[in-house]
């Protein structure tokens, strides 16, 4: 997300979420931040992004 020039809405669409708001809701559950806050925080901190993956058992 921090290395992409795509909008958050475009990312949600590419990830095949039914709506951007659905993506926002899930992203906040996963990270504790909205996508915009996450992107802005990471850019300001200039830290490598975390690798968020889901493991299915």
Number of helices: 3
Main sheet summary: none
Radius of gyration: 12 Å
Alpha-beta content class: mainly alpha
Q: Into which percent range does the helicity of residues fall?
A: 40-55%
Shape: flat
Which strand-content bin applies to the residues? Answer: under 5%
Distance between the termini: 26 Å
Uncertain residue ranges: none
Mean pLDDT value: 79
How many β-strands, per DSSP? 0
The secondary-structure element order is: HHH
Describe this structure in words.
By secondary structure, the protein is an all-alpha fold. Helix 1 crosses helix 2 (20-31). It is built from 3 helices and no strands. It is flat. The N and C termini lie far apart (26 Å). The chain is 53% helix and 0% strand. The protein has helices spanning 8-14, 20-31, 35-45.
Provide a concise account of the structure shown.
The chain has 57 residues and is mostly helical. Helix content is 53%, strand content 0%.
Record keyword descriptors for this entry.
57 residues
């Amino acid at each position: 997300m921090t290395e992409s020039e795509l909008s958050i809405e475009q990312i949600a669409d590419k990830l095949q979420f039914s709506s951007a708001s659905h993506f926002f809701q899930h992203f906040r559950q996963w990270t504790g931040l909205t996508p915009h806050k996450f992107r802005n925080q990471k850019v300001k901190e200039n830290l490598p992004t975390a690798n968020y993956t889901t493991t299915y058992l």
